[in-house]
Amino acid sequence: MEHVEIDRLRAVSKEFDRKGNVAMQLNNFIGGSWQDSGGAKYTAVTNPATGEELAQVRLSTSEDVDLAVKAAKEAQKKWALVPAPKRADYLYAIGNLMKERKEHLAQVLTREMGKVIEEGRGEVQEGIDMAFYMAGEGRRLFGETVPSELQDKFAMSVRAPIGVVGLITPWNFPVAIATWKSFPAIVAGNTFVWKPATETPMMAYEMAKIFEEVGIPAGVANVVFGSGSEVGTAMIEHPDVRVISFTGSTDTGRHVAETGGRHLKKVSLEMGGKNAVIVMDDADIDLAVEGILWSAFGTAGQRCTACSRVIVHKDVKEDLEQKLLASMKHLTIGDGMDESVKIGPVINGKALEKIQSYVEIGKEEGAKLLAGGSVLTEGDLAKGHYFEPTLFTDVKWDSRLAQEEIFGPVVSLIEVGSLDEAIEVNNSVIYGLSSSIFSKDVNKVFRAQRDLDTGIVYVNAGTTGAEIHLPFGGTKGTGNGHRDSGVAALDVFTEWKSIYVDFSGKLQRAQIDTE
Predict the structure, then answer these.
(1) In this structure, are residues 144 and 194 in contact, taking their beta carbons and an 8 Å threshold?
(2) Residue ranges of the Aldehyde dehydrogenase domain (predicted)?
(3) Which residues participate in catalysis according to the annotation?
(4) Of 36, 65, 237, 494, which has the most beta carbons under 10 Å away?
């Protein structure tokens, strides 16, 4: 692309920075240049807090995906030969540029996705941390040396890049999850094609600008805007895409796995959750209330790790209920750009309808509604997509309200009489992402961390708050055994190569010439 066009795009971005209300035209980033898609359909990006249009995106086609994959495949041959510490230098540069632009990125994120600005800053910081962490892996990427069973023979294993990887990311964490996938992919020597969610393409555009400005070689990082049915399917089915890393709904994840399996691709899935906080009779109730509020209502309940169930011991249920209700009254709701707001909007009208439908399901199932339960339409809230923080009690453990993912600010209190029952109820759902226990009894804590069937367990904390240097992912219907984040993320984006070096000067046969 000519420098004039790059300058134009930067000028538009600066104008958005200044006014915050200029609709942008977003183009694909393919092979190191900005390219318009070949699609005929457009989609508007709107601020879920205000309904204001922020950007226009032309939806890409399978032909656009093919262009991106070709660029990535061509670049990968040379990129894999760049020493890993040199590849890591680009991540250091990306992290530093993200750090410089942290406030700008957080504001774009909040306008586009809706989460409150404090959470937006935290998410951008997570991306910065991931950049620096994975840059450090450029000087590790450890293999293994082991003794050979034969004399004068050397045996070792090394991590090898796989090739072109396809990244499909959700709207609720448009920066963090993208960095969990893209940064380990490129430090390991792969190139990628990234399809961000259609609801949050502006953050992908901002990241593409950063890739461009740090001078990452053309074709290493590619961003294609479009729908899952068109762009996502084209990526999954493309013969030159070797790996698919997907975060999204369980139903879509099953389709990704089935399609990827037919094409013999490595597929990494991170999907839904129905996470629970267990509050035992010896718990610090005030601390538990804080943990529940943050886990359940942060990001308006739109986290895959959000707490949607509270499994509480019968002896402290009433105390917990009253303290939760009292604290919920102080939760301010509104535009996340307001520093005083604690809960922003949900992503769109469709999400509102789904949340409202589950409130009605809960009532029909006999659960008692203690607070909330309605769409908020008064004053400025009428312009956006706001739902009241909602609390049900006397919820049956096997009801739809307690079993199905809602993805909104709705919490169900479930009474139990023992730790055994609490663990059984926790594990009764099809998901297995995150769980938490509040207790001062070390015996209960260690029993719970062993027996809770989730990929993440918190003790005396809510169900959210994962750190980037540990594996992130779940069991059962939440995933397929792979992990994002931490060193484990490298297992998704590398293959093991075993190497044998015989310097005996003669033929030696393993398992035969060992006597």
Answers:
(1) no
(2) 34-499
(3) 270
(4) 65
